[in-house]
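Sequence, please.
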C-alpha cells in the first residue's frame, strides 16, 4: 500500500503502521524512517527459538507433545462454550422460549456434535514415524491436523456465539460474533477439505502428483481428472462422495460468503439473529462428516505400509 503525498488538509498520518522487512529491520511506512531492533532484542528472539520445546518438530516425542498442546487448545475453547450454556440464568425477556432454546442448544452440544475429546485421528507421533523423519512429508499431515483442530475450535466458538445471541437477541454485538464464527467455520472447513484431498493424492499417487495438485488452479477439477487413479486402491473409495459434499458446502455457504452477496450466514445472523433452525445445523453437519471420516480412517495408519507411492516419497523427498 503506497501513501500519497499529503497536503495541508490531510489528517496526521498513522505512524504505527508497520511493514516488516527481512531480516531484522522494521520500516515505518510513514514517515519513511526505520528502526532496527537492538542486538539484545535479536539475541532474546534467538534464545526463545532455541528454548522452544516442541517446534520445529524433530522427533516422534515432539510430535506427541505438539498433539497434546493442540488438544489442550481445542479443549479449552470447548469447555468454555459448554460452561457458558450451563449458566443458570438467562437475560431474555421471553424466558420460556429462551429456556427451550438453551435446552436445545445444550442437547446439540452434548448429543449432536462429535466431540473433539473423542477424536483419535491423525496421531502425530505415529505419523512422524511413518514419514521416517521426513519433515516435508510430515508437515502435510501436520497442516491437516492443525486445520481440523482450528475448525473444531471455531465450531465450539460458534455454539457459544449462538448462545449469546439467544440471551441477547436485540443486541448487534452477539450477532456480529455469530456471523464471524460461522464464516470462520465455513472457510476453515473448506481449507481442511483441500488439505485432506491433497493428503489422499500424496498417499495414493506420491509427492510429484501432490505437487501438481497443490499448483493446480482448481483442486476439485484435479481430483475429478485423476479420480480413477486415486480411487483404485483407496479404502474407502469415497472421493466422488467427498466432491459432492464439497460442492454442497460451496453452493450453500462458501461461494456466497467469499465471492457473492446475500449469503445465508449474513442474512440469517443479522435478520433473524439466530442460526439454530438451519444454518448452524448444516455447518455442524459438515464438521461431523469430516470428524467421522478422519477419526475412523486416519487413526490406525498401518495401511500406509502398503502405499508404495507414499513410501517412495518419504525415501526420496529432500530433507
Amino acid at each position: 500500500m503506497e501513501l500519497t503525498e499529503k497536503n495541508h488538509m490531510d489528517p496526521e498520518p498513522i505512524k504505527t503502521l508497520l511493514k516488516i522487512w527481512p531480516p531484522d529491520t522494521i520500516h515505518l511506512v510513514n514517515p519513511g524512517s526505520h528502526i532496527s531492533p537492538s542486538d539484545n532484542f535479536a539475541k532474546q528472539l534467538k534464545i526463545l527459538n532455541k528454548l522452544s520445546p516442541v517446534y520445529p518438530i524433530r522427533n516422534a516425542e515432539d510430535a506427541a507433545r505438539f498433539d497434546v498442546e493442540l488438544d489442550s487448545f481445542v479443549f479449552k475453547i470447548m469447555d468454555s462454550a459448554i460452561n457458558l450454556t450451563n449458566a443458570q440464568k438467562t437475560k431474555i425477556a421471553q424466558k420460556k422460549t429462551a429456556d427451550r432454546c438453551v435446552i436445545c442448544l445444550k442437547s446439540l452440544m452434548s448429543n449432536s456434535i462429535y466431540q473433539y475429546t473423542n477424536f483419535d485421528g491423525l496421531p502425530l507421533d505415529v505419523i512422524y514415524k511413518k514419514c521416517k523423519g521426513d519433515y516435508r512429508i510430515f508437515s502435510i499431515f501436520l497442516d491437516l491436523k492443525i486445520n481440523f483442530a482450528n475448525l473444531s475450535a471455531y465450531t465450539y466458538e460458534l455454539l457459544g456465539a449462538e448462545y449469546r445471541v439467544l440471551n441477547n437477541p436485540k443486541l448487534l454485538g452477539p450477532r456480529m460474533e455469530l456471523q464471524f464464527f460461522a464464516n470462520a467455520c465455513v472457510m476453515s472447513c473448506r481449507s481442511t477439505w483441500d488439505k485432506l484431498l491433497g493428503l489422499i493424492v500424496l498417499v495414493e499417487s506420491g509427492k510429484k502428483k501432490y505437487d501438481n495438485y497443490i499448483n493446480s488452479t482448481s483442486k476439485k477439477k484435479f481430483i475429478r481428472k485423476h479420480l480413477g487413479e486415486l480411487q483404485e486402491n483407496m479404502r474407502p473409495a469415497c472421493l466422488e462422495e467427498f466432491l459432492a459434499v464439497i460442492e454442497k458446502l460451496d453452493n450453500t455457504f462458501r461461494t456466497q460468503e467469499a465471492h457473492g452477496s446475500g449469503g445465508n450466514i449474513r442474512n440469517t445472523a443479522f435478520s433473524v439473529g439466530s442460526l439454530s433452525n438451519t444454518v448452524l445445523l448444516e455447518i455442524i453437519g459438515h464438521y461431523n462428516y469430516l470428524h467421522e471420516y478422519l477419526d475412523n480412517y486416519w487413526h490406525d495408519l498401518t495401511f500406509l505400509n502398503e502405499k508404495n507411492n507414499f513410501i517412495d516419497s518419504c525415501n526420496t523427498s529432500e530433507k
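The two ends are 37 Å apart (CA to CA).
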